[in-house]
Each structure stands twice: as structure tokens, then as C-alpha cells.
Amino acid sequence: MLQVRAGVVVGAFLLVVAVFWWDREGLRDNYDEQMSFIDVIYFTTVSVTTIGYGDIVPVSPRARLIDSLVVTPIRLFIWAIFFGTAYQLVVQRWIEDFRMRRLQARLEQHVILCGYGHAGRCAAAELVARGLAPRQILIIDAGRDNIELAAEHGYIGILGDATHEDVLRESMLPRARALFVCTDRDDTNVLIVLTARHLSSTVRIVARVEEAENEKLLKQSGANATVMPSRVGGILMADSVDSSALTACVMDLISADGEIMLLERAPLPQEIGQSPTQIGAALIVRVMRNGEALGFARPDLRIEPGDKLVIVAPAPAARDSAR
Fold first, then answer.
1. Global pTM value
2. CATH 3.40.50.720 fits domain 107-232
3. What is the pLDDT of residues 8-35, one digit of tens each?
4. In 3D, which of 108, 163, 96 has the Cα closest to residue 138?
């Protein structure tokens, strides 16, 4: 964009030079009465910049008319480009930085999302569908186009490299609810997780992984959970060989806009000591205890304090429509 503007300014300047050279007989040099090409370039410069020393002046009616009707609009056009560029590069950036500082000062329990590609956009949209306000989602991306797109969607954006500590500090990482790492490269994701974990030992980190062999590296780096989109997609495709409803049911379970969804919660007081199959108020599909997944159908399994229950429940939209 800046190159285009610079080209337009140079083109306009050369046009004025050509006009003055064509009508150089109407100009007077009070120094030596001779108008050379160097004098025309000099007069164009002082005329366009409105300095006007008065050593070279238009004297003929045609030269004055050309200066008024041709050169003056070009002069105003060039100044408009200068002011517009200065506003975009300085004033607008200062205003945006001031706005960002105010937003960051109010950020609390927000979700930081590194990488606003396809996976990042889907994750942000799902967070909004689950009830998180767009202003509670902060996007970090090195691409200006992605940050502008995030702003159009109502999210807060930071243009920068999430592997750098100063960028993550700017995102108020220690006050965040979670950090999603969604870039397309596993090595970049590992570095982001390492940097984030160095800055905060408590923030929950969920990282995308492409290669199965890199999953352990992300967890060793400090990721609380990893997601492998290629594996999930492959499993759903394989399940669709003999079934047309299974894939739709799974997508319904994991998305917020379906009729049913998977939820994780702590057990209720009346559920302690019972078998998961004995509880009729909720469909418990998994019991998590000390990081270990326990099969809910085990006859000897009893729910204990501190367990996490993975349940199937009606989605909020389905509950609202039922009412």
C-alpha cells in the first residue's frame, strides 16, 4: 500500500515537472533569467511543498492559469496522500494502541487464541456459541489480514509472534482463563507452549498437534490438553463407512449448537458413593480420577469426591426450546 502511494506521489510530481517544462516560457528566474531543466525541478519542488521562495515565479497569464487550475489540485492531492499516510501510520496506530491498552486493562478470565487460521476461527466461533463474549477472546497472529478479520468478527487482536514473551505479556496471559495454540506447525506450537508456561504456571493451555509423535512433546512442554484434528477427522470418516447417523451424532455432541453436548463437571453431593449407572439424572459416560479415565460400566466403580464426570446433557439451546 505504501509503495502504491509513493508511486502515485512520484507520478504526480513528474507530471508537474512536465507541465512546467512545457510552459517554461511563462516562468521567470529572477536570478539569471534562464529556465533550465534543473530550475524546473527546483520550482516544482518548492511549488508542490508550498514553500515558494519567490525566486522563480509564473509571469504569463497562461502560466498562472496552469498553476491555478492544474498544479494546485495536484498539490492538494499530494498533501492529502501525505496527511492520510501520516494518520494511518502514526495517529491511527496511536489511537489503536490506546484503545488496546484500555481493553487489556479490563481483561480478566479471557481466552487467548494463537493463530487465526481455519482452526482458530472455528475455535473462536465455538467459544462464542458456548456463551463467551467476543470481547473476551483475544487473537494473536503474525498476519495483518488475520488480525483485521478477527477485528471484524468482534475479537481483540494483537499483531505479533506468539513465541515472543513480550507479545504474550501484552495479552495479559497470567489473568487469562485459557490459552489455545492453533497454528499449523507443531514446532511453533511447542515453542509457544514453552514460552507461555514459563510466563504462567497456572493458565490452562490447549494445543493443536498435527503429528502424533509430537503430542508427548507438547504435553512435556506444559500443555494441559492436545487436540489432533487430522485424527478426529479420520475417525469420523472411518465411522461413516457403515453409518450415516454416527458422524452427525458425534458432531452434535462436541458442538454447542446441537441438541445434546458433552459436559465435564464435579459430582453432586448426592452422587458421591453411587455407581455411575445408578444415577438417572445424568448420563455419565466417563469418570476421571487423578488424570485417569475410568470405565463407567465397571460394577465396582463408585463416585468419589474430587472425581470429574463426563456427562451427556441437553444443549442450552435445546433446553430453551423445550421450555
1. 0.61
2. yes
3. 878 888 888 888 888 888 888 877 778 8
4. 108
